[in-house]
Amino acid sequence: MRKNNKKVAKELEFDINIGDILQFQLKQQDEVQKLYIKLIGYLPGHSMVATAPRHDGVLIKVKEGAPVTVRLLSGNNVLGFDSTVIATTGTPYPYLHIGCPMSVGKIVIRQAQRIDGGLIMSVQIENIKGKTCKPLPVKTTDISTSGALIESSIELGHAGELITLKARVNISGINEYLTIPAIIRNVRYERSKTSGRNYYYHGVEFQILEQHDSMLLHGFVYEQMMALTL
């Protein structure tokens, strides 16, 4: 098993990295659950090792031999393959082994990995006295797994300052709540191409600390990008 962040799947002609978020589709009792797991290891020709899936913080039991479908983002491609859970363990923490795919399907998304926004979020900022102000409504004009462009009627801060974004997102038909710390990288004041009004536009870089929020964000972006292929 490799334990660094180098690409580990060149043999299969697609790029995958330790720490990548994977969509894990598990069929149980005639229902397909779409969950998200993190790749933590890989041995070519043997198995992919990933964290055990959870839903609302609750561990999902997965039986050895269970058929699964795995999908992930790689550049401007959505990759997918069918496989089988070949082993599960709870020691020293819950994780599972997924059989290496013999072939991988690919859907090309003919756009950048940033998706059009329209996602309403709230933002919390601190005033000059260090006190947290009331949440302010803002809107994303585009968003990716690493950052977003935030539209606001007021300036939220200066480059290098930290803000906290919160949003409710729908993933696989379930409403989830995201909390995302972010650093402002740039700010500009200009006319909106859609409304004709002037707004502040903040380019922000996400600084996600919680694995749960990271998986939710990847799940949301993944499903929005999949919608572009339909």
Automatic annotation (TrEMBL):
Coiled-coil residue spans: none
InterPro entries referenced in this protein's UniProt entry, alphabetically: PilZ_domain (IPR009875), Split_barrel_FMN-bd (IPR012349), T3SS_YcgR_PilZN (IPR009926)
* Family matches, as Gene3D superfamilies: Electron Transport, Fmn-binding Protein, Chain A (2.30.110.10), predicted glycosyltransferase like domains (2.40.10.220)
Q: Name one GO molecular function term.
A: cyclic-di-GMP binding
Q: Which residues form the PilZ domain?
A: 131-222
Q: What Pfam families does the record tag this protein with? A: PilZ (PF07238), PilZNR (PF12945)
Query: Which keywords accompany this UniProt record?
Result: Bacterial flagellum, Nucleotide-binding
Q: Which residues form the Type III secretion system flagellar brake protein YcgR PilZN domain?
A: 17-101
In Swiss-Prot or TrEMBL terms, this protein is called PilZ domain-containing protein
User: Which organism was this protein described from?
Assistant: hydrothermal vent metagenome
User: What lineage does UniProt assign to this protein's organism?
Assistant: unclassified sequences, metagenomes, ecological metagenomes
